[in-house]
Amino acid sequence: MQFEETEKFIGTWGNIDIEKIDSQRVEPVRYNSILHVPTQLEPPLPPEVWERIFRFCAVRELRLVCRRWNDIVAGCPALRQKLTVRFRSVKFGAGYVPSVVPPAANAQLNHCLIRTVDDGWWPDFGRNLTQLSLEECRIAPPVLFRMLRGCPNLREFKLVEVKLLAGEVEAVDFVVDGMEKFSTVDLSCSEDGSEILDSLKLIFPRLKSFSMQDSDDDIWDALFTGRLVQWIETIKETLQVLEVYLDHDLLERLSEVELLQLKQAEYGIDCSSSYWDINLWTKLCRNQPSLLDVNLWGSNIDDEAIKVLVTNMSTLRILEAELDSPSQIVPSFLGHLIAVQNVTIGVNSLALAFTASFSPILTSLTIYEAYLEDGITFLMNSPHLQELSLVQCDLTKCPIPPAVQTFSALKLLELSECKIAKKVLDFTVSCHPALETVWFSGMKSVRIDTVVTLLLLSPKLHQVELMGCDRFAGFTSGAEIMRHYHRVHGSAEGSRGVSFALV
């Protein structure tokens, strides 16, 4: 088939939009005429060789070259995985059949009203799908289940701001065995949502990742919560990732579930809410012995809740949390880490006050949106810290430690969009004998002398990235910076290899 202004269309074809194809379709012609590739010039290679070659190419363009290449793409799962079909503002009803249905592995339905799916084309299209997402769509449960029935190879299913219309929830008689990841965001339902959960539990019996965020309060009642926990218990032998908001009912019921094999959890909590119960939170933390990675989000997350978390999970390695407080925040939990090595904390532009030394096990720390009055002193007192990232932090009033100190183990330093006094910056860049990598992003106070000082005092430094740092007049490349360094240092050009990235 041929499209109007085909070559221009191909160049901008990031995804396959069904309504765009329908509007540009004209009479079919030879495929090879589109890109002017004569069929007789094609090397006589078997399809298996072409598949390997095509994995390094833009598959959406290859399909338009000739019929044989289109068939090769259609017959190779790895190549189909590169194709995404988008249905935008389409009304799925009786008789709706898209004029072109590429053999894509991914499909997105945006702003669609889905009254039914045609059994004539959807099963053929659905059997190739491994990822399906519905965003801001309206669909009745029976239609949703019919759609899923036609996608036996689905591995990931997402519902974002989807409105489930009224419709009888029928008994399901099929499963999608390979489904691994199911997520919902802002799900709403015209009727009882618990029956829908029961059906989905039967369809997806072996989920590895389950996320349910910000569902409509009208369906999130005690019955719905109970069915949700039953589903989690049913899949606890395979479930590795869980993301939910913990209201009182869910916190209480989930704390009773034993032998969860979770590796990663994202919990929404509100420590100032009337429902918050630190004892239930402690029980929940103790009942998850295999967790490696936890992200806490929500409102009013305090130091006590995090301290309970890190002292009751002996396997936890990675922690991300956004703290909140009426005044300054004191992250004392950093001195109580048992196994956590990587910590990311945000404080919404509040003051972050360190009152105790860090746990010696902490090796990586990221702080964002914090006002640091005494941060440098305490950061430098962590002898095992290897990676430090400060993002959108204010260090303008941060004092310089009176004694000479160094980040003895620090290998990676990132400063991104931070406010910092020149004397503090000069001191900071002079304390890294083991530093190997530096990232400066949006740092207006970083100048060429800052980088030269880093190079002089950090003999192991071999990678520097400067993004949005505009105080480098006359220096447009890493080679020019290194030549300047060698002149200042009095060393021979080429005697030291440092990789620069200037953006």
From TrEMBL:
InterPro entries named among the record's database cross-references: F-box-like_dom_sf, F-box_dom, LRR_dom_sf
Coiled-coil region(s): none
Entry superkingdom: Eukaryota
GO biological process, alphabetically ordered: SCF-dependent proteasomal ubiquitin-dependent protein catabolic process
Domain F-box residues, every copy: 45-76
SUPFAM superfamilies with a match to the protein in the record: F-box domain, L domain-like
UniProt cross-references to Gene3D superfamilies, sorted A to Z: Ribonuclease Inhibitor
Gene Ontology cellular-component terms listed: SCF ubiquitin ligase complex
One Pfam family per UniProt: F-box
Designated name of the protein: F-box domain-containing protein
Classification of source organism: Eukaryota, Metazoa, Ecdysozoa, Arthropoda, Hexapoda
